[in-house]
Structures are given as C-alpha cells and as structure tokens.
Design a protein that fits this description.
The chain is an alpha+beta fold and 328 residues long. It has 2 domains: 149 residues; 170 residues, no CATH class. 41% of the residues are buried. A hairpin with a 2-residue loop joins strand 1 and strand 2. The strands form 4 sheets. It has a 5-stranded antiparallel β-sheet with strand order 4-3-5-6-16. It has a 5-stranded mixed barrel with strand order 8-10-12-14-13. It is 30% helix and 30% strand. Helix 1 packs antiparallel against helix 2.
Length: 328
C-alpha cells in the first residue's frame, strides 16, 4: 500500500516538473521575442531618423541650389548630415543610390524621380541589425528598411505681424524668371494704384485699431499674437492711407522692432480695388527700407527678398518664401 502511494506521488511530481519545463521553454521563447522585438523597434526608429535626416538635408540643399545660387551636391550633403547620426551603436550611413532627387506634387501627393525643377528628395534608410537573443537559435541578423520624402514649396501658412497685404500682380516678373532679384520692390505701400493695402486679417472691421493689433506693444502696437493664416483663406483688405497706423508702423521701424515682414499675397489683379476680402495665395518676405508717415507722399518702401526654410505649412504659391517639410 505504501509502495503504491509513493509511486503515485512520484508520477505527479514528474508531471509537474514536465509542465514546469515546458512553461520555462515558452517563457524563454517569449523573452527572446520581446528582447529582439524591442531591439528591432529601437533600430527601426534610428533607421527612420536616418531616412528623415537624409531627405530633409537633401531638400534643403535643393532649395539652396535653386534660390540662393548654390552649387551643392545634394546627395553628398545628405550623406554628410546622416553621418552625424548612429544606428545600432554604430555610425549611420546612407548609400548614394538610396538618395533620389525628384519632384513632389502637392496636389496629388505623389513623388516622381527627376523633373525639370526638382523640389524633393526621397531617402531610404537601411540597416542590418544583430539579433541579441535569437542569434543563439541561428537567426543572427534582421534587415530594417525605412523611407522618407521631404520637399520644399512656397509657404502655405504664416502669422503676419505687419498689417500689409500685396497683390499677386507684383510678382509677374519673378514668376517668369524664378530669380530672387526679380522679386518686387515696392516704393509705396499701401499703393495708391490699388496693388497693395492694409489688412486686418480676420478682424471684421478694417480700421486703424485692427491694423496695429499685432504690431509690438513697445512701439505702440497692440502686442497681440497674430492668427495663423493659411493659403486659400480670405482676409479683410482696405486701400488708402491710414495715418495713425502708418505712424505706429514707422515708430516700430525706427525702433528696430520691425525690419522684415511676412506678407500675405492675395488674389487681386493690378489696379483692381484693394478692399473687401482677398484670397491668400501664399506669402512673401519683405525687408522694410523706409517708412514716412508725414508730409507728401506718405509711404512704406520695402523690397522682396528670398527667404529659405521659413516656418509654416507646405503647399503655398512660390513668392520667394519657402519651407522645407516632410511630406511622406
């Protein structure tokens, strides 16, 4: 009787040990998966950073070549910037064949290689990652691949501080040449010829108080943060001179608080009345050269300048102010 009971206990003990052995193997298998998946996830993020970095650096280089007269090797620039990063505890790199120059269409959201006026770079980051645990079971490495596309375009959004808007007709020469030196030089804005004027942006009433609302408080402005204006939106316009607003703008200029302005470009034909609403097509950057609020004539003189890699959304019209952004 005692012998039979001991045998049964031994059998139960053997079954328990068997289950424990199986559970231990399952646990070890899950640990292998968890550790290597975590390692792969980290490496995948690093490879994505490589692709993003290469695409963005390449797109900025393309922009400098197109608008600043640079003659950079876009692929080499991308590779140099990538080399400042790391993947899987080693120096990052990207093959020249994995940096493709092309054209991104913001309407169709599509990339195509080459093009007469390329504006985008597609980069593919690659890495072979050593498996930390699975290598003991024969699976020593894993391949990781990530893609990215960056492109430059005219600024599609901005937060204009200056209460000035400019009609698109001023940009005809620049639109033909694409050369920064052909950006408009406005000798009198707001223009008596109705080619530029005041804007209160989205304020319902266009008057002196709303015109200076976003100018610095230190020079007599309202000091408020301007709204984010996007291409395709309508803003309020007003023509003619507004002496008090012009005086505040002059004070800001003389105090050195307002030397450049991001200006919305609106859909207005030359000599068309510059009032009521105007659709924003994009943005331009103007350097203010002089403001005269007394005597005759009263005016703001400002010169259009090329501004590369300005903050804002992509997809605006080309008026000399650009942004570089990840598009895919």
């Amino acid at each position: 009787m005692n012998y039979t009971m001991r045998t049964r206990r031994n059998e139960r003990g053997g079954v328990v040990l068997g289950f424990m052995a199986i559970a231990l193997l399952v646990f070890m298998g899950l640990a292998v998966v968890a550790i290597d998946f975590g390692h792969l996830g980290l490496s995948a993020n690093e490879v994505q950073i490589v692709a993003d970095t290469a695409a963005t650096a390449g797109a900025r280089s393309l922009l400098r070549n197109a608008k600043n007269g640079a003659a950079e090797n876009v692929v080499s620039v991308a590779q140099t910037v990538v080399a400042q990063n790391h993947v899987d505890d080693g120096d990052a790199s990207i093959a020249a064949s994995d940096v493709q120059i092309g054209t991104f269409d913001f309407t169709t959201r599509s990339f195509s290689g080459g093009g007469a006026n390329p504006n985008a770079v597609r980069a593919t980051g690659r890495a072979t990652v050593n498996n930390m645990v699975a290598g003991f079971f024969g699976d020593r490495t894993s391949d990781v691949t990530r893609d990215a596309i960056a492109a430059y375009s005219g600024n599609g959004s901005g937060m204009p501080v200056c209460p000035i808007a400019v009609g698109v007709c001023h940009f005809n020469k620049y639109k033909t040449s694409g050369t920064c030196s052909d950006l408009p030089k406005l000798s009198q804005a707001p223009s008596t010829a109705d080619n530029s004027g005041w804007t209160s942006l989205f304020e319902g009433s266009a008057n002196a108080a709303t015109f200076i609302k976003y100018l610095p408080a230190a020079c007599g402005g309202g000091g408020q943060t301007p709204p984010n204006v996007h291409a395709g939106q309508n803003i309020k316009l007003s023509n003619g001179q507004v002496n008090s607003a012009l005086k505040t703008l002059e004070d800001c200029f003389k105090a050195g608080l307002l030397t450049e302005c991001l200006v919305p470009i609106v859909k207005k034909n030359c000599n068309e009345p510059f009032n009521s609403d105007g659709e924003v097509l994009g943005f331009a950057t103007f350097k203010i050269t002089k403001v005269k609020s007394s005597g005759d004539p009263k005016f703001i003189s400002m010169d259009g300048i090329c501004e590369t890699d300005a903050p804002g959304a992509a997809g605006g019209g080309d008026y000399g102010t650009f942004t570089v952004s990840m598009v895919d």
